[in-house]
């Protein structure tokens, strides 16, 4: 039915094999790309949801719930059907056999169609992401729209590749003394069971799509449980998925929404005997709980991490400072990939502008952030707003953790007077204060640590990553030997490394189809977005053979 | 170094994609295949181990332990170095970085070399397998030798395919408004950590090799802990692996033996924080314990199951009875794949020799087994010996479970007077006695169950498989509709199905590179030997990127 999507699937298969640059969904919100009026229509669509029950044809208790409030200071007032857990799971199970029997090709092409339709709603989603996460609009468009869609397609593609790596039928002919033994065999992909995706507050689509589509393409019905503060982007997603599935003749119960106001629905669903896959993004505390308690399920978690930058030397002093300043400021550091610990030798570093002492590095970085965020109106388009009160509390108490190199600054948004906006705080702490920098401080909080040497910096990188996990690591050096040592440390610690970023690539950004997000090799995540380990456990092969 | 093995690896890669017939290691023990004198030299090599410390250059406590006794009635008297757990794990960890850095190609070619060398020791291993498991010689040669070697190569190949599905390096060039962004990226396979393989009593090599080689090829050092009654086949294996690894310049501690006399070493090793992968074959009780307690590890288990035969009708009455009789008798049913429950409509079945009532099916099957095993000297070459006292106790108490259709018979081995040998017992039980036939009775014990209809038989298949697991299912019918219903039941239950086996293919046998062994989709196993899900979790991808 969606045969016209095969070309996209083929290109995506080439992309995951080569892992060079490729993208299916343009990241530019320009009218030249998405059409005149697309931005306006998307904003209207978003606004049409506000203050009303969300149009979702899904059975529930009859109660409509929801209490989302934009970090920009407005109540959304959207409500969602409160689910009945047993009904939700029962409907998902009933929908499964036909989806299984449809086979990998039909499922993959339908999943691509869902992602294509989501892409057509990118502006609507951008507004929904902006007003649930606090991201600035352009970031909400890109990270919540095309970048998330690329990750979705990537997951579909990995799932399809894994399901089709072996032939679906085989003719087996074993030579022998007499007549050969001849059998016909059929190999069927069988889904693991009902899947649960638990969304997060900061990247509701980007972090939920890989699990959602990896499970769906491999034959599993998916229940999407958004974070109570970021329901709308996933409600729109679920609605689109259900529409496409119904169009294709499948039961829309293959994808359903489990909205809540934060009363423990995730625990109930995750430990239900019929829930066989759980994907989660969020706190280490709850991720660990899921791993310990959702024993009947395959559990994939992405949790907290401590991201480290090792500064040894640079041939682009200004490029390095500008790049780091941007990484600290983007979405106020409210990214699992944002750097937290910047390790610099106490004796300073060599640069293309001469030797810089530790204090010069500190003041240089502070000045770079100050310059980048100097103009309020431009600053808010980079930092966005603070997503929730927990982050705000951490920023406000950060000065007590060490010597303040750069204080955080409250910024007033020109259009949203009630938005809570803070620039990054940079705090100097000693290498001995590993109780401080050795754990995650999610938000616009960075630590500058004077180490005895780059060797010690790499040792800190190894130690903190192994102990607390990390999603990114980064190193700056003009020495090939030091870069090799950094690579070696990153391999030992199991963290993805970026070296010498001084221009338009930032450590907190990963490109679908090329960059892996997370590795599974350190405590921050159980798997990568996306690699074979992320999809393989979601299905089984069941064979049937008979004499030919 | 082992570049000459690349052709084998390439052929194996084609085989896992097509899953038709292919084998790398000839299953015939003929001198025309393995050379004149190979059988005699293998026997001498086996005998040279008896009554002595096994030649293994591996550090230990200084104590030499071991208490293997052949089911054919002789003490082996081989002893093995008692390991010091921390030393074993420490040595394995120290060996890991160089093995990781060697990369997928070097590791895969070295693993193929290990399997090739094992193949050269097939006769030696056949004697060791015979005298630890009780298998008859030819079966010990085939299942313990070439068939196990094919499974080993299959695991190497799946691991290699998963590691190399994406390019190891990529040039990323993102077009933009100004200069394109250009990055060079490297993707490195990083092992999960120290792997543990826990061997079983009945198929020490066949069931241990997939885990051993899947972990090793993906970069993990492997500690092999054999069943205390079946150490020698794995000690020989470990010795060969260490020799090849040392020849190739790697630390032989990448593969080590953890022998014990049965004092809980498996629990100590499996829960050690540095053990990150556990492969286990054995009882449901201990498999469940591992899944619950070895929380720091990826755990793959193969446990008990209840294998079912649904008899609806046949166009080969004699072929069906002969095939079933063979499947019940082979290695006295001491196979995880042997049928246990034979479900037949109480009203009988249609056959090419006319309608047969239930009693005729029962007496026909009893006669077929009786004829197959009528001659003692020939019978023992099919049944082998009873592997341990637990199995013997179950056979002896089986008549109390229902109405005996065929009693078990003690057979005297012409060469080994102390061998314990029993033919299968067949017991008729009612469909209501699911407390009896609904659990595994490992050994030469089969139940004949008169059901109301084939529909009920398929329902019993579904129910018992979902509840207790199964490694095989089988159906006989001349009706395409019934075969379709059987396939549908097998998909729902997640079990591999064989239909209408009446000639030289038996339900308890699976051919590497074509048949999957287990599915992971029912409680008998967590994964299949071998599919992508079996290998994918054993390694991670870690990336490094820098501006080009």
TrEMBL record, chains A, B:
One of its GO terms (cellular component) is cytoplasmic side of plasma membrane. InterPro entries: Ald_DH/histidinol_DH, Ald_DH_C, Ald_DH_N, Aldehyde_DH_dom, PaaN_2, Proline_metab_enzyme. Keywords: NAD, Oxidoreductase. SUPFAM superfamilies: ALDH-like. One of its GO terms (biological process) is L-proline catabolic process to L-glutamate. One of its GO terms (molecular function) is L-glutamate gamma-semialdehyde dehydrogenase activity. Residues 85-488 form the Aldehyde dehydrogenase domain. The keyword Glycosyltransferase does not apply. This is Phenylacetic acid degradation protein paaN. It comes from Nonomuraea polychroma. The lineage of its organism: Bacteria, Bacillati, Actinomycetota, Actinomycetes, Streptosporangiales.
């Amino acid at each position: 039915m969606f045969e016209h999507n095969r070309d996209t699937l083929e290109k995506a298969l080439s992309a995951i094999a080569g892992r060079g640059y490729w993208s299916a969904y343009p990241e530019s919100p320009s009218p030249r790309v998405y059409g005149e009026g697309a931005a306006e229509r998307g904003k209207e669509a978003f606004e049409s949801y506000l203050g009303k029950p969300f149009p979702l044809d899904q059975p529930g208790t009859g109660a409509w719930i929801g209490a989302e409030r934009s970090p920009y200071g407005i109540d959304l007032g959207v409500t969602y059907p409160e689910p009945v857990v047993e009904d939700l799971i029962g409907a998902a199970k009933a929908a499964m056999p036909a989806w299984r029997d449809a086979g990998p090709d039909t499922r993959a092409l339908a999943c691509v169609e869902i992602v294509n339709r989501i892409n057509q709603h990118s502006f609507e989603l951008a507004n929904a992401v902006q007003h649930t996460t606090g991201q600035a609009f352009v970031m909400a468009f890109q990270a919540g729209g095309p970048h998330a869609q690329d990750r979705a397609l990537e997951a579909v593609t990995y799932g399809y590749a894994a399901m089709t790596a072996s032939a679906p039928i085989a003719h087996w002919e074993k030579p022998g003394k007499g007549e050969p033994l001849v059998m016909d065999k059929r190999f069927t992909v069988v889904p693991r069971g009902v899947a649960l995706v638990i969304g997060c507050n900061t990247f509701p689509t980007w972090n939920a799509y890989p699990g959602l589509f990896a499970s769906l393409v491999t034959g599993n019905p998916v229940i999407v449980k958004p974070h109570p503060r970021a329901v709308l982007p996933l409600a729109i997603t679920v609605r689109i998925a259900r529409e496409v599935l119904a169009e294709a003749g499948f039961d829309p119960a293959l994808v359903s929404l489990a909205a809540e106001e934060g009363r423990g629905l995730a625990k109930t669903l995750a430990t239900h005997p019929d829930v066989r896959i759980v994907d989660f993004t969020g706190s280490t505390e709850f991720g660990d709980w899921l791993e310990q308690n959702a024993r009947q399920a395959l559990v994939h978690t992405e949790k907290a991490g401590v991201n480290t930058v090792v500064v040894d030397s640079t041939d682009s002093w200004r490029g390095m400072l500008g790049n780091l300043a941007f990484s600290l400021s983007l979405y106020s550091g409210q990214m699992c990939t944002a750097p937290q610990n910047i390790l610099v030798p106490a004796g300073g570093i060599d640069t293309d502008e001469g030797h810089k002492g530790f204090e010069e590095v500190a003041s240089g970085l502070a000045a770079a952030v100050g310059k980048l965020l100097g103009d309020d109106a431009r600053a808010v388009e980079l930092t966005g707003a603070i997503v929730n009160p927990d982050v705000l509390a951490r920023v406000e108490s950060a000065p007590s953790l060490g010597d303040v190199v750069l204080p955080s600054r409250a910024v007033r948004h020109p259009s949203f007077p009630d938005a809570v906006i803070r620039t990054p705080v940079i705090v100097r702490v000693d290498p001995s204060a590993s109780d401080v920098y050795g754990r995650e401080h999610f938000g616009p909080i960075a630590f500058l640590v004077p180490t005895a040497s780059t060797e010690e910096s790499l040792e800190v990188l190894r130690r903190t990553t192994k102990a607390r996990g990390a999603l990114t690591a980064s190193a700056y050096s003009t020495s090939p030997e030091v870069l090799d040592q950094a690579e070696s440390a990153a391999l030992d610690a199991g963290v993805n490394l970026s070296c010498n970023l001084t221009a338009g690539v930032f450590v907190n950004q990963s490109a679908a189809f090329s960059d892996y997000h997370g590795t599974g090799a350190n405590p921050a995540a159980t798997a990568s977005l996306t690699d074979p380990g992320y999809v393989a456990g979601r299905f089984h092969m069941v064979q049937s053979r008979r004499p030919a």
